[in-house]
Amino acid sequence: MIYTLTLNPSIDYTMHVSNFEPGGLTRATETDYYPGGKGINVSRVLSRLDIPSTALGYIGGFTGEFIRSALKTEGIEESFIETNQPTRINVKLKDDVESEINGPGPELNDLLQRRLLEQLDRLTSEDRLLLAGSIPSSLPDSFYRTIAEKCIKKNIPLAVDTSGQALKELLDYPLYLIKPNQKELEDLFGEPIDSKEKTALYARKLVEEGCEHVIVSLGGEGAVYVDKETTLFADAPKGEVINTVGAGDSMVAGFLAAKEQHLSPEEAFRKSVACGSATAFDSDLGKRKDVDDLYESIIIHQGGKE
Ligand SMILES: Nc1ncnc2c1ncn2[C@@H]1O[C@H](COP(=O)(O)OP(=O)(O)O)[C@@H](O)[C@H]1O
Ligand SMILES: O=P(O)(O)OC[C@H]1O[C@](O)(COP(=O)(O)O)[C@@H](O)[C@@H]1O
């Protein structure tokens, strides 16, 4: 079973505006709200691809109830731990450019932390775990490390989609998959990375540090894939971009789904890009039919082994 862990879920509240005026009144032309948080997005896309998963993490209050019922409607297993504070609402402002404001997350005491670690103790080497998104500020920065230690000891393949210090710290472990975006890769290495070739070079450093599969997403420019044997470049397909929130998470889901179906790295990468772009072209996460339609149109170029 694939388990997705979202320590800090959210409702993503998307507001479409034109000419947002800081300090003034702006009326939104359209609003949407979706269950969010990186692992939850991955579970939702996996489910659209007919791959079951179980969503783990902390939820609470009326916002948490919304997430629970949305996942139930979509037939997604969850085993969330309840907190006494409402799950955060993250605001996604769509004007000519997209801006995001993400909340800090709930207070999680020792008991809640222990309950999650006990849940994870029940995973076996037959399972896979995805650690996704930010660590709420009340948890120690080392929380993902604690989880990683346990998983690696038990040979549980670990996929990671997070950023900043949390990502840096996890690179000490042999990870199954990581998917930084361009900014996250630049932050990791403290350098501007402005071409696909340079992206591949830095992605290869991550492979050399022990990551089995590295995908770097580059928004409208597509993505780069590196493993021990291969370097691949994908162009993003053209289409009307509606909402890129969750596009990166969709890539992770696409890759994990394809590997569950024993597809080759190239096919898995293709599926990953198709999922990312299907989401970018939708107001919610991409739909199965759109992923299938985009799949064949993704152009993949082979790179050298830098
Ligand atoms: N403007 C776009 N046009 C087409 N596809 C896009 C666009 N923006 C994002 N995507 C798709 O979504 C993937 C992930 O996007 P990106 O913005 O890099 O991820 P993240 O959400 O993690 O920042 C890209 O690799 C691409 O497949
Ligand atoms: O935990 P973080 O880093 O605050 O990120 C949470 C946000 O990331 C998302 O999962 C979207 O992530 P991506 O756009 O990177 O795929 C949103 O649903 C959510 O609001």
TrEMBL record:
SUPFAM superfamilies: Ribokinase-like. The keyword GTP-binding does not apply. It is an enzyme of class 2 (transferase). PROSITE patterns: PFKB_KINASES_2. Keywords: ATP-binding, Kinase, Lactose metabolism, Nucleotide-binding, Transferase. Gene3D superfamilies: 3.40.1190.20. One of its GO terms (cellular component) is cytosol. The keyword Nucleotide-binding applies. InterPro entries: 1-PFruKinase, Carboh/pur_kinase_PfkB_CS, PfkB_dom, Ribokinase-like, Tagatose/fructose_Pkinase. GO terms for molecular function: 1-phosphofructokinase activity; ATP binding; tagatose-6-phosphate kinase activity. It catalyses: beta-D-fructose 1-phosphate + ATP = beta-D-fructose 1,6-bisphosphate + ADP + H(+); D-tagatofuranose 6-phosphate + ATP = D-tagatofuranose 1,6-bisphosphate + ADP + H(+). GO terms for biological process: carbohydrate catabolic process; D-tagatose 6-phosphate catabolic process; lactose metabolic process; small molecule metabolic process. Pathway: Carbohydrate metabolism; D-tagatose 6-phosphate degradation; D-glyceraldehyde 3-phosphate and glycerone phosphate from D-tagatose 6-phosphate: step 1/2. It comes from the Bacteria. Its EC number is 2.7.1.144. Residues 6-280 form the Carbohydrate kinase PfkB domain. Belongs to the carbohydrate kinase PfkB family. LacC subfamily. NCBIfam families: 1-PFK, pfkB. Catalyzes the ATP-dependent phosphorylation of fructose-l-phosphate to fructose-l,6-bisphosphate. This is Tagatose-6-phosphate kinase. It comes from Salimicrobium halophilum.
